Amino acid sequence: MTHLQAGLSPKTLEKARLELNENPDTLHQDIQEVRDMVITRPDIGFLRTDDAFILRFLRARKFQHFEAFRLLAQYFEYRQQNLDMFKSFKATDPGIKQALKDGFPGGLANLDHYGRKILVLFAANWDQSRYTLVDILRAILLSLEAMIEDPELQVNGFVLIIDWSNFTFKQASKLTPSMLRLAIEGLQDSFPARFGGIHFVNQPWYIHALYTVIRPFLKEKTRKRIFLHGNNLNSLHQLIHPEILPSEFGGMLPPYDMGTWARTLLDHEYDDDSEYSVDSYNTSAKEVEKDLSPKSMKRSQSVVDPGVLKRMDKNEEENMQPLLSLD
């Protein structure tokens, strides 16, 4: 075992070896091979290329050198192409702070039976008057940056549960094609995290319809890890044990405290509420959405349009049975 693996338990070390092809004898060579590829992309500013940083990309791509490098390049390219998103990229930024305090994202105290961190989002908590969808995405990315420092989570990964209860049609209409592409690129294509499952619960018909339309834009591997449970929490419990879930998900624990993760990041600044409104954000969500990357422009077909949803018969809600995609 090298010093780069010092943070891993014996169980996780074995998992890294078997599932990710991680070999302590060749670890430094693997890292160097990825680092040597940096010269092939002079158009990208690689702000970090240290061993520990590159290692998380290798783990995210099961030590396939070129795939790890491509993810590393996309990580920095995404930040170059969306500079306004990463200005004041810290927990105390007013928009990020408001999103964090409303539970975007939340994190459960217990890991699942695979050692994965369980992230939760309660979609209806979004207060459109106080922060934007871009702020929510920034808060999620910032949180992942903090969590991925843990080598155990680099190997074991994450699970995400999104509760769509009481998420209104008006809120859903803000999920524009460009906003969705921004999120997909930031989370699926440009971040070194392993997501073992993304679970939708209590989704209304229009969220189900939205997913159906964006599904082709997701990688096959991502699609296989998305589970639409609807109101059937029993199917969720088959994959995540109720003993570690809060009562909102039919679990045995008390209701989730939305400020739990925010307090971890903000510490003593959690209660310091400065004045902030959506209009005070130096770059509005619309401006960020217009600044689409070349990769986004290639996916120029509309993901979903609120007008399309309005033309859908609400009776379809009864005909849309929850989909459960199993690996």
TrEMBL record:
Xref: PROSITE patterns: CRAL_TRIO (PS50191)
Membrane topology term: Peripheral membrane protein
Keyword Membrane: yes
Keyword S-adenosyl-L-methionine attached: no
CDD domains reported in the protein's UniProt record: SEC14
Gene Ontology, cellular component aspect: clathrin-coated vesicle; early endosome membrane; trans-Golgi network
Main location: cytoplasm
SMART domains named in the record: CRAL_TRIO_N, SEC14
Subcellular location(s) per record: Cytoplasmic vesicle, Clathrin-coated vesicle; Early endosome membrane; Golgi apparatus, trans-Golgi network membrane
Record keywords, A-Z: Cytoplasmic vesicle, Endosome, Golgi apparatus, Lipid-binding, Membrane
GO molecular function, one term: phosphatidylinositol-3,5-bisphosphate binding
One of the protein's GO biological processes: lysosome organization
Region (Disordered): 276-327
Residue span(s) of domain CRAL-TRIO: 96-257
Functional summary from the UniProt entry: Required for normal morphology of late endosomes and/or lysosomes in neurons. Binds phosphatidylinositol 3,5-bisphosphate (PtdIns(3,5)P2).
Subunit and interaction comment: Forms a complex with clathrin heavy chain and gamma-adaptin.
Protein name: Clavesin-2
Organism annotation: Podarcis muralis (Wall lizard)
